[in-house]
Amino acid sequence: MKVAYLGPAASFTHMASEKAFPNAELIPSVTIPDCIKALEDGTVESAIVPIENTIEGTVNVTLDYLFHQANIPIQAELVLPIAQHLMVHPDNVSKWREAEKVLSHPQALAQCETYLSDELDKAIREATPSTAYAARRVGEQVEPVLAAIAPRLSAKEYGLTIVAEDIQELELNQTRFLVLSHQPVKIELPSTKEKISISVTLPNNMPGALHKVLAAFSWRQIDLCKIESRPLKTTLGEYFFLIDLYVGDQEKLIDNAIEEIQLTGCKTKIFGCYSVHTIPIS
User: How far apart (Å, rounded) are the C-alpha atoms in residues 273 and 282?
Assistant: First the structure.
């Protein structure tokens, strides 16, 4: 089995992929769209991409691609504890505070902004496609002094030295990853919840449309765990809504609610009904 993930090696997505598919051939992708395209063109059987972080919220590029361009079901969700570490080339350990740039994925930079403001306020923040990509770049050059924010595995993979540990703003920092595949997948990790993700696009100029959508779930006592809006990319002020629901024993009620929503003129898209797997802290 071939599984695409947001690379390069030693990224958080790589760590989640190894835990979910320990016997698969893991294939790194430079960007999230590239990862999903590998699944679309049949290069891989599954793809793993980040969708949300505790501190920085939704990974918009993932959500937008799944809504606007892809038609691939979510087969599972992985929840990974996230610890961000500051690392430098071994030759620069004594002068890491002189770093001209701090490299990392935009979400990781944002998760650690408080620490960076206190300790490296003059360093330029440079966004990279992934945390592991940042670590690899820092390992490739000694001058000028660069630092990377990345997982511990990246330091080991690219020969870096960690100079500050756990610099993220929240101790309980987690990232959710989606497992995408045209076929069901088997994951040998603890699972306690079942979710369904749908999008709802409201009719133009229909008063109370969002209230009617939420009411369809409310009076049936269906448990919503997330709702957010994203631009439709048509006209300013037009949005679609992503809604995540806990399934439990309410699958039939959810089907009825979606049917009621469609009868009001709303358009819906089901991204998938899937299990949530928690990756133990190692």
Answer: 28
pLDDT band, residue 273 (cuts 50/70/90): very high
**What are the pLDDT digits (tens) for 11-21?**
889 989 999 99
Handedness of CA 128, 130, 131, 135 (dihedral sign): negative
Is pLDDT at 190 greater than 60 in this prediction?
yes
Q: What is the mean pLDDT of the chain?
A: 91
**Could you tell me which CATH number the domain at 191-274 has?**
3.30.70.260
What single letter denotes the amino acid at residue 44? V
Bridge-based pairing of strands 74-81 and 174-180 is antiparallel
Are 2-81+173-180 and 85-164 in the same CATH fold? Answer: yes
Give me the residue spans of the domains in the chain.
2-81+173-180, 85-164, 191-274
Residue 272, both tokens: 């998938």
Rg (CA), the chain: 21
Burial 217-255 (b: 16+ CB within 10 A, else e): beeeebeeeeeeebeeeeeeeebbbbbbbebeebeebbe
pTM equals 0.81
The CATH-assigned architecture of domain 2-81+173-180 is 3-Layer(aba) Sandwich (3.40)
Q: What tokens does 5 get?
A: 């993930």
Backbone conformation region of residue 133, classed left if phi is above 0, alpha if psi is from -120 to 50, else beta? alpha
